[in-house]
Amino acid sequence: MKTNFELSDEKKINSSGVELFRIKVKKKFTNKFEGDIEVGSIGGWVDNIARVSGNAWVYGDAEVYGDAEVYGDAEVSGNARVYGNARVYGNARVYGNARVYGDAEVYGNARVSGNARVYGNAWVYGNARVYGNAWVYGDAWVYGNAWVYGNCKIKIILCSKFNFEFQWQVEEWVNLEKEFEKKLKEKR
């Protein structure tokens, strides 16, 4: 796996008790969002250099650890955390205080930000946005141009063209979906 980084001497123990090291750029590269990243630039925190590869960039106080990976042109920044077996790749961005963990995947042009959480087996992809205090978890897929935000929590719903801010909107959609399925069964 190609990496543009090395571990610096700066280290810390994070809130999960994992020893992390700051990354340092060893080879100039171009990140889609940040442009040219020069040799010697200091990035975010990782427990193993293999966690970040390609033209991906982890910076600020962002942390990537466990068996998580960030690759492609993806970016993780701010105080964001990516851990467990999570994957962030393609042109995806995770920032703010967002968390992506478990076996979750964020990819394509997706964005996860604010205090949002994506975890379990959830996937956020395409041009989807998850932000604010929203949670996407379980086996949920949020994709296309969908936005999930505010205090919304998505567990099993597949979204492609809808925007949810409030939990009642999700529940209403689930009820409509159940009604539709019931009518389909009646017609058969």
Please supply descriptive tags for the structure shown above.
188 residues; mainly beta; UDP N-Acetylglucosamine Acyltransferase, domain 1; nine-stranded mixed β-sheet; seven-stranded parallel β-sheet; 1 helix; elongated
Helix/strand structural class: mainly beta
Number of domains: 1
CATH-level-2 architecture: 3 Solenoid
Instruction: Encode the helix/strand succession as letters.
Output: EEEEEEEEEEEEEEEEEEEEEEEEH
* Arrangement of strands in the largest sheet: 1-2-5-7-10-13-16-19-22
Give the overall shape, derived from the CA principal axes: elongated
**CATH fold category name:** UDP N-Acetylglucosamine Acyltransferase, domain 1
Number of strand elements: 24
Strand content: 25-35%
Q: Rg to the nearest angstrom?
A: 18 Å
What is the element layout, followed by pairings?
Layout: E1 5-13, E2 19-25, E3 29-31, E4 35-37, E5 42-46, E6 57-58, E7 63-64, E8 69-70, E9 75-76, E10 81-82, E11 87-88, E12 93-94, E13 99-100, E14 105-106, E15 111-112, E16 117-118, E17 123-124, E18 129-130, E19 135-136, E20 141-142, E21 147-148, E22 153-154, E23 158-159, E24 163-164, H1 167-187
Question: What do you see in this structure?
Answer:
By secondary structure, the protein is mainly beta. It has one domain (5-187): 3 Solenoid (UDP N-Acetylglucosamine Acyltransferase, domain 1), CATH 2.160.10. 11% of the residues lie in helices and 35% in strands. The chain has one helix and 24 strands. The chain has one helix at residues 167-187, and strands spanning 5-13, 19-25, 29-31, 35-37, 42-46, 57-58, 63-64, 69-70, 75-76, 81-82, 87-88, 93-94, 99-100, 105-106, 111-112, 117-118, 123-124, 129-130, 135-136, 141-142, 147-148, 153-154, 158-159, 163-164. A nine-stranded mixed beta sheet has the order 1-2-5-7-10-13-16-19-22, with no helix packed on it. Strands 6-9-12-15-18-21-24 form a seven-stranded parallel beta sheet. Strand 3 (29-31) and strand 4 form a beta hairpin. The chain is elongated, with a radius of gyration of 18 Å.
